[in-house]
Amino acid sequence: MIRHIVLFTLTDKAREDGLEQVVEKIRISAQNMTQNIPGLLTAEFEMNQNKNSPYDVIFYSEFDSVKSLEAYQNHPVHEAHRQFSLEYVSNPQIADLYQNDTQL
After folding, report:
1. What pTM was estimated for this model as a whole?
2. Quick check: 28 pLDDT over 70?
3. Can you tell me whether residue 92 is helix, strand or coil?
4. Least confident of 9-13, 27-31, 78-82, 99-103
5. Which residue of 4, 15, 24, 74 lies most exposed, with the fewest beta carbons within 10 A?
């Protein structure tokens, strides 16, 4: 299993449109990816509860293999999610955690 974690800051547009509404829209889009991208086991988008962090929101996902994570990067549903989210999030910081038994 691979854990794919992305930290973001929210844009001024997200603040103007209302943080709760924006986060909910992106959360729904992330759930849509889980239902439509093979190998994506879970996808969550939430506000960061660490108030000392420079990042406002966290995208957490799990994949069944490295190949699934790689395929996800260019999957049309992910591309649509990414395009939708671009006006609301910035400064992505990405981490991928591989478990010992991960299938490459």
Report:
1. 0.90
2. yes
3. strand
4. 99-103
5. 74
Q: Reply yes or no on domain 2-98 having CATH 3.30.70.100.
A: yes
> What is the C-alpha to C-alpha distance for residues 81 and 88, in angstroms, rounded to an integer?
11
pLDDT the model gives residue 52: 95
Written in H, E and C, the secondary structure of 31-87 is HHHHHHCCCEEEEEEEECCCCCCCCCEEEEEEECCHHHHHHHHCCHHHHHHHHHHCC
Report in angstroms the alpha-carbon separations of 100 from 65, 69, 103.
12, 16, 9
**Which residue ranges make up each domain of the chain?**
2-98
Task: Give CA–CA dist 95/24, Å, rounded.
Answer: 23
pLDDT of residue 99: 81
Structure tokens at 24: 């909910």
Cβ-contact 37, 81 below 8 angstroms: no
37 CB burial (10 A radius; 0-12, 13-18, 19+): buried
